[in-house]
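Page 47, continued from p. 46.
Same chain as before, 558 aa.
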Amino acid sequence: MQSEKPIGIPFDAGAAIRFSQALSRNLLHSTLVGRLLQISVDYAGAERGLLIFIIDNAATIKAEAVVRASGIEVQARNDAVGMFKELPMAILQYVIRTNEPVILDDASTDAVYGRDETVLSRGMRSTLALPILSQSKLIAILFLENNFAPCVFTPDRVAVLEHLASQAAISFESADLYAELEKKVALLDVLPVSAWMLEPSGTPEFVNRSGLEFADQSLAHITSHPASWMDAVHPDDRDAATRIFRRGVQLGQDFSFETRSLSARDGSYHLHLHQAVALRDREGQVVKFVGTTTDIDEHKRGEESLRTTQSALAHSTRLATLKAVVASLAHEVSQPLSGIWANADAGARMLALDSPDLSGVAESVKRTMRDAVRATEIVQRMRAMFAEAAPTSAAVNINNAVNEVVALIAGELEKGGATVQTSLSDRIPLVAGDKIHLQQVMLNLLLNAIEAMASVDDRPRIVRIETIYDDRTGGVLVSVRDVGIGLDKTTLEKLFQPLFTTKAKGVGVGLSICRTIVENHGGRISAAANAREPGACFSFVLPTHEASEKQAPSKSSA
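Result:
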């Protein structure tokens, strides 16, 4: 025996508003599904309702509501519609295809759907399939039926249900966003760095476990005392931090700043980096600020240690080349010293004459002074090359720098049976950098070239140095080509890596330091096979002084 026909709620003009408010209060997806089905079945006078979601173009029944003697019973489901035999597929497919509702006063007598197997087997009469759309995209279908009477789903009831479907689409979207936000908040809570969220006004809304433990504060205290985060900040850092924070909030912009913050755990100040990004809605309005506070104490110490290590390695590399350069120095200095001795001896003999040759003595003194100046310049060049001085940035004539290095290793070139050929463009601009450091790069490349040609006997040992203006980068290109044994592909890939060397007694830091120096100057260094003849080619590009001044004007020149 069939039960008595359910009686729908009499239509009320305020029903749509009340139902919308009832839905909007539900932010959990599962609760929202059950509430929507319950309201729809109760208000429309249906005896059964189904909520079908369209996920990745597949229709899945997520819940079913049935009217029992004890009330409306809602049951969660997860059934593919093809496996559910009590749903008329023809009606469902029409709604999916057209995004239009299907409203049947009496399905059993309908000319289109009356012969559907499910309609016939269930004796379906009043039937409603209502699409739920989000920005014109079908996200779900509300299916209602009443098999006791025809014409149950009147136009007035359908109008309220359509309004309810629109609200449901918004609520489902909000529920999805809320679920996603809960996942992110759960993730934020277990992050090893402090993470937090602010209201658009800058008022704290959430601080994760790491942040609360660092300050030894509760979330309730922080949310009720918006300025409490400043309690841990070092007094000397508060003004700058407050200024940047307030400016970011007022302008609705991302912001970041560093502070020294007091740890409640160890009672010491830690250097912290605070970063926040502004989250916006579709209209561009800020809805949240999400940020992190990262302890960068160890990172800063690591950077300082790395700089110290790099400086020490650079100095060690300069000292490692000292043995080779000392020979050149002795060779160069011996000539002006010999000149000084010879001129002084000649001058002394002229003064010892019965009639001293004063004009000859004067000329000897001039030559002595000239050779002394030359010897002094050589020594100064040597001292500057190996001094452990802090780098400076200035306008550098790279051609002059190259010539000085070539002169410095003249003895090493002679010892290695090598000669240098230079092609230095007189049209290149000044480069920006530290002259001594750039000469260190040149010195290293030249000494490597000499060593690479040590075993070459079938061709002249020539090192070719070229400087040109590089149109592609807008910088100055310096290349050093040798005719040595060359480099294979595997070696080229590892050549600038720290501690990689092809030398039997090498330590593998020279080229690594060269790369560091060039990159610190805003340039880049590379190696390749010598395209013109056997051997290798090392090249580096440096930015011009003029280009660097546009970013950070230089106050000195070299």
